[in-house]
Amino acid sequence: MPTNSVRPSIAETAYRFFDRAVHPEMFSPAIVGRIRSSQYDLALGICQGGHYLQFTCNGQSMTEVTGPESEVLSSYGLQQTYFFNETEELVLEAEKNFKYHFAGQIEILDFSVFTRVQMELEYEASKAFISHQFPAKNRLQPGPLSLAQIDGSENSITVSIFHTFPDDLVVLRTQSLFEFPAAKSDN
């Protein structure tokens, strides 16, 4: 007996950018990761419909949310909502006391290619910062997978996130780049 997928269709999935922190209680993450440094605080959660990423630097915060448009969130601080589509890539830049660059793109694949990409991402999940695979809709289809990889340097951090949508044979790739002033050394 088939069940409904825990992940909504890519057609229902939206990117939302808030110029403030959004309360973590608004989400039901399957897994959460956090990085704290003297310069920034980054919190990332993988949810059934996608992810949330909250970044704070020098007292200013922002939140990106990728998930179902039906997910009820406050409109306070909401700067942009965007639905992903096959023909264009979303690129967003914001200036605070740090720079934020977001890029998101979907790839619609045929079944054999999607299956291969899903297996490759399952392998990469063991090396990811955080990852989670949700239950499969049926025994013939893989479960939706999400994983996040993080790379950083003295004055930047890049978060690459992959979400698979087995019902739609789609892979959503997002990349968020945060650039901030290098920490001052005490010499």
**Cα end-to-end separation:** 67 Å
Question: Cα-atom Rg, whole angstroms?
Answer: 17 Å
Quantity of strands, as a count = 12
Question: For the residues shown, what is the average pLDDT?
Answer: 88
Backbone structural class: mainly beta
Topology record:
Blueprint: E1 13-18, E2 31-36, E3 40-47, E4 50-57, E5 60-68, E6 78-83, E7 90-95, E8 99-108, H1 111-125, E9 130-133, E10 145-153, E11 156-165, E12 170-179
Antiparallel strand pairs: 1-5, 1-6, 2-3, 3-4, 4-5, 7-8, 8-12, 9-10, 10-11, 11-12
Brief account:
With about 190 residues, the protein is mostly beta strands.
Description:
- With 187 residues, the chain is mainly beta.
- Helix content is 8%, strand content 49%.
- The chain contains 1 helix and 12 strands, in the order E-E-E-E-E-E-E-E-H-E-E-E-E.
- The strands form 2 sheets. Strands 2-3-4-5-1-6 form a 6-stranded antiparallel β-sheet, with no helix packed on it. It has a 6-stranded antiparallel β-sheet with strand order 7-8-12-11-10-9, covered by helices on one side.
- The chain is globular and about 55 Å long.
- It starts with 12 loop residues before the first strand and ends in an 8-residue tail after the last strand.
Main features:
1 helix, six-stranded antiparallel beta sheet, about 190 residues, mainly beta, single chain, globular
